[in-house]
Design a protein that fits this description.
Elements lengths: L13 H32 L12 H23 L13 H24 L32 H14 L4 H5 L3 H8 L11 E5 L5 H9 L4 E6 L2 H12 L8 E3 L12 E7 L7 H14 E12 L9 H10 L5 H4 L4 H8 L1 E9 L2 E8 L10
Parallel strand pairs: 1-2, 1-4, 2-3, 4-5
Antiparallel strand pairs: 5-7, 6-7
Helix pairs in contact: 3-4, 4-8, 9-12
Length: 370
C-alpha cells in the first residue's frame, strides 16, 4: 500500500523508534541534498539571481539541530501518549513523491527564468482574477502558478517537505495535542458529533492528520484554491469511508453560520497574508466558533519567541518570495487573537513552528459581519 493506514505499532519497541528516527534522518538528508543541488544549479546558471543569504554560525547550526531533535522527540512522545496513532509517524506517500520528484527538476528552468526577470505575478491566464484578493495573485515561494493550478498542487507537499528537511508533517502535528486537550472540555451539541473546521486546508495534509486524531468528528476544510481542493479530495478520498467536506472560500469571509463549529484549526496561513487580512481571518474564525470553542493555529516562529533563529528567518525571506513574511515575524499575533475575542491564549514554539491555542469567550457575541 502506498499509504500506511491503521498501522498499530508497539510504542515501547526500541526497534520501532529506531525506524522512526532513521526515516526522519533520511528525509532530512534528502532535503539537504536537494537544496544543495538546487542552490548549486542556480549559482551556476543565474548567479545574478541567487539570493545573498546570511551565514549560519556553528553555534546556530547546532541550535537548529538540537531544536529539530526536540521536535522529533515530542512527535514520538505524543504518539506514545495516544494523542494520535503511530501510523501518522510513518504516513509518507513514497510512491507518489518518487513519481513527482522529477517534475520539480523539470520545473526548475521556469523558476530560474522567472527569478531572473523578477517576475512574481506569473499566475495562469485561465483564472478569473476577480475571484481572488490581489495579494493572492502571485507566485509564493517562486513556485510555478502560485497556488492556482493542478501542477502547483501536485508538487506542493513534496516541495514543503524538502524545504523543512522532512519535518513539515511533524510540525503540522503540533496542533493535535492542544486541540485534543481543549476539546476534552467541549461537549458536542445534542445529537451531533464535534464539528471541526480546517481553514486554508491546502492539499488536505492537516485534515488527514485531524481525521486520525479525531476519528468521530465531522471535519470540514476550506481553501481559496480550487486546484488545491481537488488535490485534497484525492488525498482524503483514499481513507476508508471518508467523504471529504471541502468548501472553496476566502478565509476573510467564511461561508458558515455564527457559532457553527466546536473547533477551528489553521496551519501555515498567516505569514502569507497582509496584516489586516490576518486580523480579519481570526475574526472570522471567532465568529464561526461556538462560545467555549477552541482555535488552534500553527505558523512560522517569530522574532519575539525565537530570536536565536533570526538569521534563519531572514534567509527564508531572502530565498523565497514571501512578501508578507517579514511583517509577520514582527507582528503581535497575540494581540490579534485578543482583539478578535479569544481568551485563555497559550503558545509554544517547536523548531520552525509556533502554535497558538485559545477559546472563544463564553457569552461573546458573534455578530461580526461576513
Amino acid at each position: 500500500m502506498e499509504w500506511a493506514t491503521g498501522l498499530l505499532l508497539p510504542m515501547a519497541d526500541p526497534v520501532t523508534k529506531l525506524a522512526y528516527r532513521i526515516l526522519q534522518t533520511g528525509k532530512g538528508l534528502a532535503g539537504l541534498l536537494h537544496k544543495q543541488a538546487s542552490d548549486g544549479l542556480m549559482h551556476s546558471l543565474v548567479p545574478e539571481s541567487a539570493p545573498r543569504t546570511l551565514p549560519l554560525t556553528p553555534a546556530m547550526a547546532e541550535a537548529l539541530k538540537a531544536s529539530r531533535d526536540c521536535l522529533l522527540e515530542r512527535d514520538w512522545n505524543d504518539a506514545a501518549l495516544g494523542i494520535y496513532p503511530t501510523s501518522l509517524l510513518f504516513d509518507t506517500p513514497w510512491l507518489s513523491w518518487a513519481r513527482r520528484y522529477p517534475l520539480i527538476w523539470l520545473d526548475t528552468p521556469s523558476i530560474l527564468e522567472r527569478r531572473q526577470r523578477r517576475d512574481v505575478k506569473a499566475v495562469p491566464d485561465t483564472i478569473n482574477r476577480e475571484n481572488y484578493p490581489d495579494y493572492y495573485l502571485q507566485t509564493f515561494h517562486h513556485q510555478t502558478d502560485g497556488y492556482l493550478s493542478d501542477h502547483s498542487a501536485t508538487l506542493y507537499d513534496l516541495q514543503v517537505e524538502i524545504l523543512f528537511n522532512g519535518t513539515a508533517d511533524v510540525m503540522r502535528r503540533r496542533i493535535l495535542a492542544p486541540l485534543k486537550r481543549a476539546l476534552g472540555t467541549v461537549q458536542p451539541r445534542r445529537g451531533r458529533s464535534l464539528r471541526v473546521l480546517d481553514v486554508a486546508t491546502g492539499t488536505g495534509r492537516t485534515l488527514r492528520q485531524l481525521r486520525a486524531a479525531l476519528p468521530d468528528a465531522d471535519l470540514v476544510g476550506t481553501d481559496l484554491s480550487a486546484a488545491y481542493l481537488r488535490e485534497a479530495n484525492r488525498l482524503l478520498s483514499r481513507l476508508p469511508g471518508e467523504c471529504p467536506q471541502l468548501v472553496r472560500a476566502n478565509a476573510e469571509a467564511l461561508p458558515f453560520a455564527d457559532d457553527s463549529f466546536d473547533a477551528v484549526s489553521c496551519v501555515f496561513l498567516l505569514h502569507e497574508l497582509p496584516r489586516q487580512a490576518r486580523a480579519r481571518v481570526l475574526e472570522q474564525c471567532e465568529r464561526v466558533l461556538r462560545p467555549g470553542g477552541v482555535m488552534v493555529l500553527a505558523d512560522s516562529i517569530q522574532l519575539a519567541d525565537s530570536p536565536e533563529f533570526r538569521t534563519v528567518m531572514e534567509n527564508f525571506h531572502r530565498v523565497f518570495h514571501e512578501p508578507y513574511y517579514k511583517d509577520y515575524v514582527m507582528d503581535d499575533i497575540d494581540a490579534h487573537f485578543r482583539s478578535a475575542g479569544f481568551e485563555q491564549l497559550l503558545s509554544e514554539s517547536h523548531f520552525m513552528v509556533r502554535v497558538w491555542s485559545c477559546v472563544k469567550a463564553v457569552g461573546q457575541p458573534s455578530a461580526r459581519a461576513t
